[in-house]
Amino acid sequence: MSRQISIQRGLVWFRSDLRIQDNSALYHASTRCEQLAAIFIACPETWKNHDEGDALVSFRMACLQKLQGQLQTRNIPLYFLEVPEFSLVPEALQQIIQRLKVEALFANAEYPLNELRRDNAVREKLLEHNVSVEYYSDRTLLPPGAVRAASGDPYKVFTPFKRALIQLCAGSQVKPLPTPRKIPPSTNSEHWPKWLAVDVKGNRKLTQKIPSQLLGYSLNIDGSGRVKGWESGEQAAQKRLKAFAEIIDQYQAERDFPAKDSTSRLSPYLNSGAISIRQCVKMALSQNKGLWQGGDEGIACWISELIWREFYTHLLTDFPRLSMGRPFKEETEQIPWRYDEGLFSLWASGETGVPIVDAAMRQLNETGWMHNRLRMIVASFLSKNMLIDWRWGERYFMQHLIDGDFASNNGGWQWTASTGTDAAPYFRVFNPYSQSQKFDPNGEFIRHYVPEISSLSNKEIHEPPMIEGYPQVICDVSAGRKRAIEVFANLK
Question: TM segments (predicted)?
Protein backbone atom coordinates (compact mmCIF):
# COMPACT_ATOMS: atom_id res chain seq x y z
CA MET A 1 0.00 0.00 0.00
CA SER A 2 1.41 3.36 -1.00
CA ARG A 3 1.04 5.85 1.82
CA GLN A 4 0.64 9.59 1.38
CA ILE A 5 0.09 10.77 4.94
CA SER A 6 -1.33 14.29 4.77
CA ILE A 7 -3.95 14.28 7.54
CA GLN A 8 -3.23 13.94 11.24
CA ARG A 9 -6.68 12.70 12.31
CA GLY A 10 -9.40 11.18 10.15
CA LEU A 11 -12.80 9.61 10.76
CA VAL A 12 -14.47 6.96 8.58
CA TRP A 13 -18.27 7.05 8.63
CA PHE A 14 -19.66 3.55 8.03
CA ARG A 15 -23.20 3.09 6.72
CA SER A 16 -24.08 0.31 4.23
CA ASP A 17 -20.45 -0.79 3.74
CA LEU A 18 -19.76 -2.95 6.78
CA ARG A 19 -16.46 -4.58 5.79
CA ILE A 20 -12.75 -3.82 5.88
CA GLN A 21 -11.73 -5.44 2.57
CA ASP A 22 -12.29 -3.49 -0.66
CA ASN A 23 -13.81 -0.54 1.18
CA SER A 24 -13.00 2.65 -0.71
CA ALA A 25 -13.50 5.15 2.11
CA LEU A 26 -11.64 3.06 4.67
CA TYR A 27 -8.76 2.26 2.34
CA HIS A 28 -8.16 5.85 1.25
CA ALA A 29 -8.52 7.16 4.80
CA SER A 30 -5.94 4.65 6.02
CA THR A 31 -3.43 5.75 3.38
CA ARG A 32 -3.82 9.46 4.16
CA CYS A 33 -4.37 9.66 7.92
CA GLU A 34 -1.81 9.24 10.67
CA GLN A 35 -4.53 8.52 13.23
CA LEU A 36 -7.85 6.99 12.29
CA ALA A 37 -11.14 6.07 13.93
CA ALA A 38 -14.52 4.97 12.59
CA ILE A 39 -18.12 5.80 13.46
CA PHE A 40 -21.56 4.32 12.86
CA ILE A 41 -24.67 6.42 13.49
CA ALA A 42 -27.98 4.63 14.01
CA CYS A 43 -31.13 6.63 13.14
CA PRO A 44 -33.99 4.33 14.18
CA GLU A 45 -36.86 6.79 13.61
CA THR A 46 -35.70 7.47 10.05
CA TRP A 47 -35.14 3.76 9.46
CA LYS A 48 -38.72 3.13 10.61
CA ASN A 49 -39.98 5.83 8.26
CA HIS A 50 -38.08 4.04 5.48
CA ASP A 51 -39.90 0.82 6.42
CA GLU A 52 -36.69 -0.95 7.44
CA GLY A 53 -37.80 -3.87 9.58
CA ASP A 54 -36.45 -5.91 12.46
CA ALA A 55 -34.71 -8.52 10.28
CA LEU A 56 -32.88 -5.94 8.19
CA VAL A 57 -31.78 -3.82 11.14
CA SER A 58 -30.84 -6.88 13.21
CA PHE A 59 -28.61 -8.12 10.39
CA ARG A 60 -27.08 -4.66 10.01
CA MET A 61 -26.27 -4.49 13.72
CA ALA A 62 -24.88 -8.04 13.71
CA CYS A 63 -22.59 -7.13 10.81
CA LEU A 64 -21.57 -3.98 12.68
CA GLN A 65 -20.53 -6.05 15.69
CA LYS A 66 -18.39 -8.25 13.45
CA LEU A 67 -16.92 -5.17 11.77
CA GLN A 68 -15.87 -3.70 15.10
CA GLY A 69 -13.83 -6.81 15.83
CA GLN A 70 -12.16 -6.67 12.43
CA LEU A 71 -11.31 -2.99 12.84
CA GLN A 72 -9.73 -3.75 16.20
CA THR A 73 -7.24 -6.02 14.42
CA ARG A 74 -6.15 -2.91 12.51
CA ASN A 75 -6.09 -0.82 15.75
CA ILE A 76 -8.95 1.35 14.46
CA PRO A 77 -11.58 2.06 17.14
CA LEU A 78 -15.24 2.08 16.09
CA TYR A 79 -17.61 4.52 17.76
CA PHE A 80 -21.40 4.14 17.92
CA LEU A 81 -23.99 6.90 18.23
CA GLU A 82 -27.77 6.69 18.19
CA VAL A 83 -29.82 9.74 17.17
CA PRO A 84 -33.48 9.50 16.14
CA GLU A 85 -33.32 10.81 12.60
CA PHE A 86 -31.11 11.86 9.69
CA SER A 87 -31.75 15.58 10.28
CA LEU A 88 -29.73 15.44 13.52
CA VAL A 89 -26.67 13.82 11.96
CA PRO A 90 -24.90 16.98 10.66
CA GLU A 91 -24.94 18.70 14.05
CA ALA A 92 -23.93 15.49 15.83
CA LEU A 93 -20.99 14.89 13.50
CA GLN A 94 -19.87 18.49 13.80
CA GLN A 95 -19.78 18.22 17.60
CA ILE A 96 -17.98 14.87 17.51
CA ILE A 97 -15.39 15.96 14.99
CA GLN A 98 -14.72 19.16 16.90
CA ARG A 99 -14.30 17.31 20.19
CA LEU A 100 -12.07 14.64 18.64
CA LYS A 101 -10.05 17.21 16.67
CA VAL A 102 -10.71 15.37 13.39
CA GLU A 103 -9.55 17.04 10.17
CA ALA A 104 -11.35 14.93 7.55
CA LEU A 105 -14.41 12.70 7.22
CA PHE A 106 -14.45 9.78 4.78
CA ALA A 107 -17.55 7.85 3.68
CA ASN A 108 -18.96 5.82 0.81
CA ALA A 109 -21.85 7.42 -1.05
CA GLU A 110 -25.47 6.33 -0.69
CA TYR A 111 -28.06 7.19 -3.34
CA PRO A 112 -31.69 7.23 -2.13
CA LEU A 113 -32.91 10.83 -1.91
CA ASN A 114 -33.01 11.19 1.87
CA GLU A 115 -29.50 9.76 2.17
CA LEU A 116 -28.23 12.18 -0.49
CA ARG A 117 -29.82 15.12 1.31
CA ARG A 118 -28.31 14.00 4.64
CA ASP A 119 -24.85 13.67 3.12
CA ASN A 120 -25.05 17.07 1.41
CA ALA A 121 -26.08 18.64 4.72
CA VAL A 122 -23.15 16.97 6.48
CA ARG A 123 -20.72 18.28 3.86
CA GLU A 124 -22.06 21.83 4.16
CA LYS A 125 -21.98 21.74 7.96
CA LEU A 126 -18.42 20.44 8.22
CA LEU A 127 -17.04 22.70 5.52
CA GLU A 128 -18.19 25.63 7.66
CA HIS A 129 -15.69 24.36 10.22
CA ASN A 130 -12.91 23.69 7.70
CA VAL A 131 -13.29 19.91 7.88
CA SER A 132 -12.96 18.16 4.53
CA VAL A 133 -15.57 15.58 3.56
CA GLU A 134 -14.86 12.94 0.93
CA TYR A 135 -17.53 10.61 -0.45
CA TYR A 136 -16.47 7.67 -2.60
CA SER A 137 -18.40 5.68 -5.16
CA ASP A 138 -18.30 2.18 -3.66
CA ARG A 139 -21.76 0.60 -3.81
CA THR A 140 -21.74 0.33 -7.61
CA LEU A 141 -19.20 -0.65 -10.25
CA LEU A 142 -19.46 2.80 -11.83
CA PRO A 143 -20.70 6.01 -10.21
CA PRO A 144 -24.34 6.83 -10.94
CA GLY A 145 -24.35 9.23 -13.88
CA ALA A 146 -21.34 7.59 -15.52
CA VAL A 147 -23.40 5.38 -17.85
CA ARG A 148 -25.09 7.56 -20.44
CA ALA A 149 -26.62 7.25 -23.87
CA ALA A 150 -24.97 9.12 -26.77
CA SER A 151 -27.47 11.94 -26.19
CA GLY A 152 -26.23 12.31 -22.62
CA ASP A 153 -29.55 11.09 -21.23
CA PRO A 154 -29.78 8.31 -18.65
CA TYR A 155 -30.85 4.89 -19.82
CA LYS A 156 -34.45 3.98 -19.02
CA VAL A 157 -34.31 0.35 -20.22
CA PHE A 158 -32.03 -2.33 -18.84
CA THR A 159 -30.56 -3.96 -21.96
CA PRO A 160 -28.93 -0.85 -23.47
CA PHE A 161 -27.74 0.15 -19.98
CA LYS A 162 -26.11 -3.24 -19.57
CA ARG A 163 -24.48 -3.04 -22.98
CA ALA A 164 -23.07 0.43 -22.24
CA LEU A 165 -21.83 -0.52 -18.76
CA ILE A 166 -20.01 -3.58 -20.06
CA GLN A 167 -18.41 -1.51 -22.78
CA LEU A 168 -17.14 0.94 -20.15
CA CYS A 169 -15.93 -1.76 -17.76
CA ALA A 170 -14.60 -4.40 -20.15
CA GLY A 171 -11.40 -2.52 -20.92
CA SER A 172 -10.33 -2.18 -17.29
CA GLN A 173 -9.60 -4.76 -14.64
CA VAL A 174 -12.03 -5.17 -11.76
CA LYS A 175 -9.56 -4.96 -8.90
CA PRO A 176 -10.77 -4.84 -5.28
CA LEU A 177 -8.81 -2.59 -2.94
CA PRO A 178 -6.45 -4.03 -0.30
CA THR A 179 -7.22 -4.30 3.40
CA PRO A 180 -6.35 -1.07 5.23
CA ARG A 181 -3.02 -0.82 6.96
CA LYS A 182 -2.60 -1.83 10.57
CA ILE A 183 -1.98 1.35 12.50
CA PRO A 184 0.45 1.11 15.45
CA PRO A 185 -1.56 1.26 18.69
CA SER A 186 0.82 3.79 20.18
CA THR A 187 0.01 6.06 17.24
CA ASN A 188 -3.70 5.49 17.16
CA SER A 189 -6.01 3.57 19.47
CA GLU A 190 -4.47 4.81 22.71
CA HIS A 191 -5.30 8.40 21.75
CA TRP A 192 -9.07 8.07 21.19
CA PRO A 193 -11.38 8.51 24.23
CA LYS A 194 -13.77 5.66 25.09
CA TRP A 195 -16.85 7.91 25.05
CA LEU A 196 -18.06 11.50 24.67
CA ALA A 197 -21.29 13.30 25.53
CA VAL A 198 -23.07 14.65 22.45
CA ASP A 199 -25.70 17.34 22.98
CA VAL A 200 -28.14 16.61 20.16
CA LYS A 201 -31.84 16.46 21.10
CA GLY A 202 -30.92 15.53 24.63
CA ASN A 203 -27.63 14.30 25.98
CA ARG A 204 -26.42 11.32 23.94
CA LYS A 205 -23.30 9.26 24.33
CA LEU A 206 -20.74 8.54 21.65
CA THR A 207 -19.37 5.21 22.77
CA GLN A 208 -17.19 2.35 21.64
CA LYS A 209 -19.82 -0.12 22.91
CA ILE A 210 -22.40 -1.33 20.39
CA PRO A 211 -25.80 -1.70 22.10
CA SER A 212 -27.89 -4.87 22.05
CA GLN A 213 -31.13 -2.92 21.47
CA LEU A 214 -32.35 0.09 19.49
CA LEU A 215 -35.38 2.26 20.16
CA GLY A 216 -38.39 0.88 18.28
CA TYR A 217 -36.67 -2.30 17.12
CA SER A 218 -36.56 -5.86 18.38
CA LEU A 219 -33.03 -7.00 17.60
CA ASN A 220 -32.98 -10.76 17.22
CA ILE A 221 -29.31 -11.73 17.06
CA ASP A 222 -28.22 -15.06 18.51
CA GLY A 223 -25.00 -15.67 20.40
CA SER A 224 -23.00 -16.41 17.25
CA GLY A 225 -24.28 -13.34 15.39
CA ARG A 226 -26.92 -15.13 13.30
CA VAL A 227 -30.17 -13.45 12.31
CA LYS A 228 -33.04 -15.73 11.24
CA GLY A 229 -30.43 -18.39 10.56
CA TRP A 230 -28.23 -16.12 8.44
CA GLU A 231 -24.58 -15.83 9.46
CA SER A 232 -23.54 -12.19 9.63
CA GLY A 233 -20.40 -10.30 8.73
CA GLU A 234 -17.64 -10.16 6.19
CA GLN A 235 -16.20 -13.63 6.79
CA ALA A 236 -19.65 -15.21 6.34
CA ALA A 237 -20.06 -13.26 3.10
CA GLN A 238 -16.74 -14.52 1.75
CA LYS A 239 -17.65 -18.06 2.78
CA ARG A 240 -20.94 -17.76 0.90
CA LEU A 241 -19.21 -16.32 -2.19
CA LYS A 242 -16.74 -19.21 -2.20
CA ALA A 243 -19.54 -21.78 -1.91
CA PHE A 244 -21.50 -20.18 -4.74
CA ALA A 245 -18.40 -20.13 -6.95
CA GLU A 246 -18.50 -23.93 -6.91
CA ILE A 247 -22.03 -24.07 -8.38
CA ILE A 248 -22.25 -20.84 -10.38
CA ASP A 249 -22.12 -22.72 -13.69
CA GLN A 250 -25.55 -24.19 -12.81
CA TYR A 251 -27.05 -20.78 -12.09
CA GLN A 252 -28.98 -20.14 -15.30
CA ALA A 253 -30.35 -23.67 -15.51
CA GLU A 254 -31.47 -23.93 -11.87
CA ARG A 255 -31.93 -20.41 -10.51
CA ASP A 256 -35.72 -20.34 -10.97
CA PHE A 257 -36.45 -23.45 -8.90
CA PRO A 258 -37.09 -22.35 -5.30
CA ALA A 259 -36.70 -25.87 -3.84
CA LYS A 260 -33.06 -25.88 -4.99
CA ASP A 261 -30.25 -23.97 -3.30
CA SER A 262 -28.92 -22.72 -6.63
CA THR A 263 -28.80 -18.96 -6.14
CA SER A 264 -25.97 -17.02 -4.52
CA ARG A 265 -27.93 -15.87 -1.43
CA LEU A 266 -25.46 -12.99 -1.26
CA SER A 267 -28.09 -10.25 -1.29
CA PRO A 268 -28.09 -9.63 2.50
CA TYR A 269 -24.31 -9.23 2.41
CA LEU A 270 -24.35 -6.94 -0.63
CA ASN A 271 -27.06 -4.82 0.95
CA SER A 272 -25.27 -4.42 4.29
CA GLY A 273 -21.95 -4.00 2.53
CA ALA A 274 -20.39 -7.07 4.15
CA ILE A 275 -19.19 -7.87 0.62
CA SER A 276 -18.58 -5.53 -2.33
CA ILE A 277 -19.96 -5.63 -5.84
CA ARG A 278 -16.38 -5.66 -7.12
CA GLN A 279 -15.52 -8.80 -5.17
CA CYS A 280 -18.55 -10.55 -6.64
CA VAL A 281 -17.81 -9.49 -10.20
CA LYS A 282 -14.14 -10.38 -9.87
CA MET A 283 -15.05 -13.92 -8.83
CA ALA A 284 -17.42 -14.30 -11.77
CA LEU A 285 -14.99 -12.89 -14.32
CA SER A 286 -12.12 -15.01 -13.02
CA GLN A 287 -14.23 -18.13 -13.65
CA ASN A 288 -15.43 -16.93 -17.05
CA LYS A 289 -12.04 -16.14 -18.57
CA GLY A 290 -12.62 -12.42 -18.15
CA LEU A 291 -15.82 -12.42 -20.20
CA TRP A 292 -18.75 -10.25 -19.14
CA GLN A 293 -20.98 -11.90 -21.72
CA GLY A 294 -20.77 -15.28 -23.40
CA GLY A 295 -18.54 -18.04 -22.10
CA ASP A 296 -20.26 -20.01 -19.35
CA GLU A 297 -23.97 -19.21 -19.55
CA GLY A 298 -24.50 -19.60 -15.79
CA ILE A 299 -21.77 -17.11 -14.93
CA ALA A 300 -22.87 -14.63 -17.62
CA CYS A 301 -26.43 -14.86 -16.32
CA TRP A 302 -25.34 -14.04 -12.75
CA ILE A 303 -23.26 -11.09 -13.94
CA SER A 304 -26.38 -9.82 -15.69
CA GLU A 305 -28.31 -10.05 -12.41
CA LEU A 306 -25.62 -7.99 -10.67
CA ILE A 307 -25.98 -5.37 -13.39
CA TRP A 308 -29.73 -5.23 -12.72
CA ARG A 309 -28.83 -4.19 -9.18
CA GLU A 310 -26.49 -1.57 -10.62
CA PHE A 311 -29.19 -0.30 -13.00
CA TYR A 312 -31.76 0.24 -10.27
CA THR A 313 -29.24 2.10 -8.10
CA HIS A 314 -28.25 4.39 -10.97
CA LEU A 315 -31.91 5.23 -11.62
CA LEU A 316 -32.33 6.69 -8.12
CA THR A 317 -30.06 9.66 -8.81
CA ASP A 318 -31.59 10.49 -12.20
CA PHE A 319 -35.22 10.05 -11.16
CA PRO A 320 -35.69 11.33 -7.57
CA ARG A 321 -39.41 10.59 -7.75
CA LEU A 322 -38.55 6.92 -7.26
CA SER A 323 -37.57 7.83 -3.68
CA MET A 324 -40.88 9.64 -3.18
CA GLY A 325 -43.28 6.74 -3.59
CA ARG A 326 -44.05 7.64 -7.18
CA PRO A 327 -44.02 5.42 -10.28
CA PHE A 328 -41.35 5.64 -12.94
CA LYS A 329 -44.02 5.74 -15.66
CA GLU A 330 -45.88 8.85 -14.63
CA GLU A 331 -49.02 7.98 -16.61
CA THR A 332 -49.59 5.05 -14.25
CA GLU A 333 -50.42 7.55 -11.49
CA GLN A 334 -53.96 7.29 -12.93
CA ILE A 335 -54.40 3.59 -12.13
CA PRO A 336 -57.41 3.05 -9.82
CA TRP A 337 -55.63 0.76 -7.39
CA ARG A 338 -57.67 -1.13 -4.84
CA TYR A 339 -56.97 -0.62 -1.13
CA ASP A 340 -58.56 -3.66 0.52
CA GLU A 341 -56.76 -4.17 3.83
CA GLY A 342 -58.43 -7.51 4.48
CA LEU A 343 -57.32 -9.05 1.18
CA PHE A 344 -53.86 -7.55 1.60
CA SER A 345 -53.55 -9.12 5.04
CA LEU A 346 -54.36 -12.55 3.58
CA TRP A 347 -51.68 -12.04 0.91
CA ALA A 348 -49.14 -10.92 3.51
CA SER A 349 -49.76 -13.89 5.82
CA GLY A 350 -49.71 -16.50 3.06
CA GLU A 351 -53.42 -17.33 3.20
CA THR A 352 -54.51 -16.59 -0.38
CA GLY A 353 -55.47 -20.12 -1.38
CA VAL A 354 -52.84 -20.07 -4.15
CA PRO A 355 -50.15 -22.45 -2.86
CA ILE A 356 -47.07 -21.00 -4.57
CA VAL A 357 -48.02 -17.49 -3.38
CA ASP A 358 -48.67 -18.69 0.15
CA ALA A 359 -45.44 -20.69 0.30
CA ALA A 360 -43.45 -17.68 -0.91
CA MET A 361 -44.97 -15.29 1.63
CA ARG A 362 -44.43 -17.77 4.44
CA GLN A 363 -40.80 -18.14 3.37
CA LEU A 364 -40.43 -14.37 3.64
CA ASN A 365 -42.12 -14.16 7.02
CA GLU A 366 -40.11 -17.05 8.48
CA THR A 367 -36.65 -16.47 6.99
CA GLY A 368 -36.53 -12.77 6.04
CA TRP A 369 -35.73 -13.76 2.45
CA MET A 370 -37.61 -14.83 -0.67
CA HIS A 371 -36.42 -16.56 -3.82
CA ASN A 372 -36.29 -14.08 -6.73
CA ARG A 373 -38.67 -16.02 -9.00
CA LEU A 374 -41.17 -16.03 -6.17
CA ARG A 375 -40.77 -12.28 -5.63
CA MET A 376 -42.02 -11.76 -9.17
CA ILE A 377 -44.91 -14.21 -8.75
CA VAL A 378 -46.25 -12.73 -5.51
CA ALA A 379 -45.77 -9.15 -6.75
CA SER A 380 -47.69 -9.91 -9.93
CA PHE A 381 -50.44 -11.62 -7.95
CA LEU A 382 -50.86 -8.59 -5.68
CA SER A 383 -50.54 -5.80 -8.25
CA LYS A 384 -52.17 -7.45 -11.26
CA ASN A 385 -54.54 -10.24 -10.16
CA MET A 386 -55.64 -8.37 -7.02
CA LEU A 387 -54.99 -4.85 -8.42
CA ILE A 388 -53.73 -3.71 -5.02
CA ASP A 389 -51.28 -0.81 -5.06
CA TRP A 390 -47.73 -2.12 -5.60
CA ARG A 391 -46.51 0.33 -2.94
CA TRP A 392 -48.26 -1.72 -0.27
CA GLY A 393 -46.27 -4.75 -1.37
CA GLU A 394 -43.04 -2.79 -1.69
CA ARG A 395 -43.48 -1.53 1.87
CA TYR A 396 -44.27 -4.99 3.25
CA PHE A 397 -41.17 -6.43 1.61
CA MET A 398 -38.95 -3.71 3.08
CA GLN A 399 -40.45 -4.33 6.52
CA HIS A 400 -39.67 -8.06 6.38
CA LEU A 401 -36.70 -8.61 4.06
CA ILE A 402 -33.27 -9.18 5.59
CA ASP A 403 -31.81 -7.98 2.25
CA GLY A 404 -34.13 -4.98 1.82
CA ASP A 405 -32.23 -2.80 -0.65
CA PHE A 406 -34.43 0.18 -1.49
CA ALA A 407 -33.32 0.52 -5.12
CA SER A 408 -33.68 -3.16 -6.00
CA ASN A 409 -36.92 -3.60 -4.07
CA ASN A 410 -38.52 -0.55 -5.65
CA GLY A 411 -37.22 -1.45 -9.09
CA GLY A 412 -38.45 -5.02 -8.84
CA TRP A 413 -41.92 -4.08 -7.68
CA GLN A 414 -42.34 -1.42 -10.35
CA TRP A 415 -41.04 -3.78 -13.05
CA THR A 416 -43.63 -6.40 -12.09
CA ALA A 417 -46.45 -3.87 -11.66
CA SER A 418 -45.68 -2.36 -15.12
CA THR A 419 -45.17 1.08 -13.59
CA GLY A 420 -41.38 0.98 -13.91
CA THR A 421 -38.55 0.62 -16.39
CA ASP A 422 -39.56 -2.30 -18.54
CA ALA A 423 -39.57 -2.78 -22.29
CA ALA A 424 -42.21 -5.53 -22.02
CA PRO A 425 -45.89 -4.53 -22.43
CA TYR A 426 -48.21 -4.06 -19.48
CA PHE A 427 -50.18 -7.21 -20.29
CA ARG A 428 -47.39 -9.43 -18.97
CA VAL A 429 -49.04 -11.04 -15.95
CA PHE A 430 -47.52 -14.05 -14.21
CA ASN A 431 -49.97 -16.93 -13.91
CA PRO A 432 -49.22 -18.34 -10.44
CA TYR A 433 -50.50 -21.80 -11.31
CA SER A 434 -48.41 -22.28 -14.45
CA GLN A 435 -45.40 -20.73 -12.70
CA SER A 436 -45.85 -23.20 -9.86
CA GLN A 437 -46.12 -26.17 -12.20
CA LYS A 438 -43.05 -25.08 -14.12
CA PHE A 439 -40.71 -24.14 -11.29
CA ASP A 440 -41.88 -26.36 -8.43
CA PRO A 441 -43.11 -29.33 -10.50
CA ASN A 442 -43.15 -31.85 -7.65
CA GLY A 443 -44.40 -29.38 -5.08
CA GLU A 444 -41.30 -29.71 -2.89
CA PHE A 445 -41.17 -26.02 -2.02
CA ILE A 446 -44.92 -25.78 -1.47
CA ARG A 447 -44.95 -28.83 0.81
CA HIS A 448 -42.21 -27.33 2.97
CA TYR A 449 -44.05 -24.06 3.66
CA VAL A 450 -47.69 -25.16 3.24
CA PRO A 451 -47.72 -28.49 5.09
CA GLU A 452 -51.53 -28.54 5.37
CA ILE A 453 -51.74 -29.60 1.71
CA SER A 454 -48.62 -31.78 1.65
CA SER A 455 -50.65 -34.95 1.13
CA LEU A 456 -51.98 -33.78 -2.26
CA SER A 457 -50.62 -35.23 -5.48
CA ASN A 458 -47.98 -33.46 -7.53
CA LYS A 459 -50.75 -32.36 -9.88
CA GLU A 460 -53.31 -31.19 -7.32
CA ILE A 461 -50.88 -29.35 -5.08
CA HIS A 462 -50.51 -26.42 -7.49
CA GLU A 463 -54.25 -25.68 -7.69
CA PRO A 464 -55.84 -27.68 -4.90
CA PRO A 465 -59.47 -28.66 -4.52
CA MET A 466 -61.36 -27.55 -1.43
CA ILE A 467 -59.53 -29.06 1.53
CA GLU A 468 -60.15 -28.62 5.23
CA GLY A 469 -57.63 -26.35 6.89
CA TYR A 470 -56.60 -24.50 3.74
CA PRO A 471 -58.38 -21.37 2.46
CA GLN A 472 -60.26 -21.05 -0.79
CA VAL A 473 -58.55 -18.82 -3.34
CA ILE A 474 -59.26 -15.16 -2.54
CA CYS A 475 -59.53 -13.92 -6.11
CA ASP A 476 -60.29 -15.23 -9.59
CA VAL A 477 -56.85 -15.31 -11.20
CA SER A 478 -58.17 -15.21 -14.76
CA ALA A 479 -60.70 -12.43 -14.10
CA GLY A 480 -58.08 -10.43 -12.20
CA ARG A 481 -55.69 -10.64 -15.14
CA LYS A 482 -58.38 -9.43 -17.53
CA ARG A 483 -59.30 -6.52 -15.24
CA ALA A 484 -55.65 -5.40 -14.88
CA ILE A 485 -55.11 -5.44 -18.65
CA GLU A 486 -58.23 -3.34 -19.18
CA VAL A 487 -57.14 -0.83 -16.55
CA PHE A 488 -53.70 -0.38 -18.14
CA ALA A 489 -55.14 -0.27 -21.66
CA ASN A 490 -57.36 2.64 -20.67
CA LEU A 491 -54.47 4.82 -19.46
CA LYS A 492 -54.08 8.03 -21.43
Answer: none
